Amino acid sequence: MKLRVEVVALDCLMVRLFDEIAEANMPWMLAASESLRAAFGEHLIDLVPSYTTLMVHYDLTALSPTQAQELIAQALIDLSPNARTRGKCHVLPVWYDLSVGPELSLLAQRSGLAVDEVIRRHSEREYQVFALGFAPGFAFMGLVEEVLAAPRLSTPRKKVAAGSVGIAERQTAAYPVVSPGGWNLIGRTPAKLFDRNRDGYSLMQPGDTVRFEAVGHAEFINLGGDDTPLEAQA
To answer: In this structure, are 94 and 71 located in the same domain?
Structure first.
């Protein structure tokens, strides 16, 4: 771990802990988040964790930039992950089907695998939530098995259904709301990923882990899923 602090704005500092994205980073990122929240206390406005960095937004009326940097240095001395800094584990049901996941066949073709094998490999792995972004509740997860990795679509869709599960490079995600998007869609989850009435709004948070569980059409509908084909939603 290589600690560096970069100035983002007068009241905002970027704490860089790592140079490369890795699942092994997250216990350290969570431990750092916990320590920084405790160190800044009421003077912390926001703390945004990501793949390798933590953005610290603090109250400039209470702390000078120098004081903020000193707090960061002190908070991260002897940093060590522990069981308390583990995130939650989520299991998301997914209906994998070409009607809602049109790139299933493309990924099968690219990988040389059968569609059923693509589904099996995507759903048997546990993924780390690295960051939230793009849209409210959109969790960037990884790392997808290399054989399933695929670049984003050259032309993004104007409308992607809420719950759509996709792959982009070695990341996977589920769209929390209807939005444009360029990921390779392979299925759909009925899970409510973003809720204004939920504490924290997003079902998933950085540091959580996620496993996708393949379900049939009937169970998907029983769980509240929308099976409207993607083409009909364009």
So the answer is: no
